[in-house]
Specification:
Elements: H1 6-18, H2 68-73, H3 77-86, E1 91-93, E2 103-106, E3 114-116, H4 121-124, E4 131-133, H5 134-149, E5 152-157, E6 183-191, E7 196-198, H6 199-202, H7 220-234, E8 240-242, E9 254-257, E10 266-267
Parallel strand pairs: 3-5, 8-10
Antiparallel strand pairs: 1-2, 2-4, 5-6, 6-7, 6-9, 8-9
Helix pairs in contact: 3-5
Amino acid sequence: MVLLRPRSLFAAVAFFLATPPPPAHSLPGLPAPATAPADEPAGALDTDDVAAPSEEIPTANPADANAPARRYGAMDAPTCERELRGRGVHFEKAPEQRGVLLPVRLTAPVHGVTYRTALGERARKTSPYEITDCRLALALDDFAKILAVHDIVEVIHYSMYRPPSPRSLAPGALGTRHSGALAIDAGAFIKKDGSKIDVEKDFHGGIGQRACGVTPPTDPRAKELREIVCGAASAHLFNVALTPDYNWQHRNHFHLEVTPKVSWFIIH
């Protein structure tokens, strides 16, 4: 039996309290996250999705109404569907989903890029995490062009849609972020040669640092991850792009989001 001196005991307690919480998502495998608990307070948001107003970092002129994310966020369902079909994106409409304007499932690679969870093929066909709003699908179509430059053919994500609990979203109301199927949590990128770039293992960032607009790490994979996410932010494909530099909850994925009817952009 080992007895701790008072100072050692204090240090042990301090270490325990300072130890980060267990991972919200575990790699490898990218399992789908759990749905919101039934007792979630009304109006609550997932903590890993929230960007406080004081932490918003504008990266575009708010008057630029032609920014892709702003244009998509302002679309109604018929307009979005027409554009998605016009681009030749293969999809099928999903049954009505709580909080989602126009739920769809991508049924083929989007201009050469497959967006999928790590679930088995059979489970993916019915999983809510594979559902995306049409407006996010348009942004993912644009994103595929950036990914193609890096020979990316698959994006493995944790989820796009997370069904909100009845208490967190009123019947008939549209959701935002994952509750509206307007965000994707991308955890890994697979190249044509089969190699994988893993956000958690390869980003090499630090909470509070800037992901874009600074000298990138020398590690090739870390540099490439920044080229991918910063390229999407620079093109204004998503209103929100959160990286492992944002907080602990984002250490293993990029949160990329289309936010309806706003003029601001966040990259962190």
